[in-house]
Amino acid sequence: MKLDVAFLDIPFNLPYSFARAHLVSAPLLRVEITDDDFSGRGEATLFESPFADPKAATAEQLERARRDIEEGATRDELLTLLPAGPARNAVDAALWDLEAKRRGVRVWSLAGLPAPVPVEDMLTISLADEPQFTQELEDSRGRRALKLKLGSDTDVQRLETTRALRPDAELVVDVNCGWSLDRLVEMLPVLARHDVRMVEQPVGPDEEEGLRGLPRAVPLVADESFYGEGDLPRISELYDGVNIKLDKCGGLTAALRIVEQARRRDLRIMVGCFAASSLATAAAFQVATFAEFRDIAGHLILTEDVQPAMPCRDGWLDPPSADLWG
Description:
Strand content: 15-25%
Low-confidence stretches: none
CATH superfamily of the largest domain: Enolase-like C-terminal domain
Shape: globular
Number of strands: 14
CATH class of the largest domain: Alpha Beta
Number of helices: 11
Distance between the termini: 18 Å
CATH architecture of the largest domain: Alpha-Beta Barrel
Largest sheet: 8 strands, parallel
Order of helices and strands: EEEHHHHEEHEHEHEEHEHHEHEEE
Helix content: 25-40%
Strand order of the largest sheet: 5-6-7-8-9-10-11-12
CATH topology of the largest domain: TIM Barrel
């Protein structure tokens, strides 16, 4: 087999702002694994890499693993061959895609999953300045599920504006570690008053011990504090749920294991993403049927996409076509 690696940088339709960053493009990794007859593809995002030079570090990881991959490493072997992260996610997705094509079946059949049906995805409203923020809310009409980015001194006003313009929306908020514990306690009754269904990562890891036993009517879901299966024992004592991202846990194979363990712990499940093309969305879609909250359509905010792209109609994503992936 042969492994091909490519790095891309695709601009967003609009600047993407949240409590920890202001972004204008998505740095992507795409891999392709080919044999004499078939080709499998996978994609990942290099955002939130722990490395100073994510592209160089990811390329080095792949080169170290190249021989094993090209000699036929399995998806289970990848769990120890590559560390959790975007490199393993992309290769894992390519191996799923390749095996599905070799066997002439779809990925969900290989994984023992039920045949997928369309799922509803949430639309993110960024932490932009007022003109863009208002425009994003106006443009959101027709989408039922919204995720509102918070983490500024205008959070209460943003909630009020959101409910004024979108009183019908099913609303969750994502704070990206932007609050202190005291601020969270202040905001909990405000969130409940605005019928917020869930809060994603309200505080940073240095303050999350204060979540233990904290009374709350609104469930809290871990994102920045949650990477993989090994985090579940600690997270289950602090949070009510986890956000599973394939780029963090290291691919679909690892994500399916996390779903099983999270359900045993009665944790609520969210499936999230970093912005990427429909190729990455297709892999995350396989986990979406297990999730209560879904934020996987990162391809919708990019200026370019792979073809055939995954359509989204009024917030509902169709399963990926076989021509795209899996």
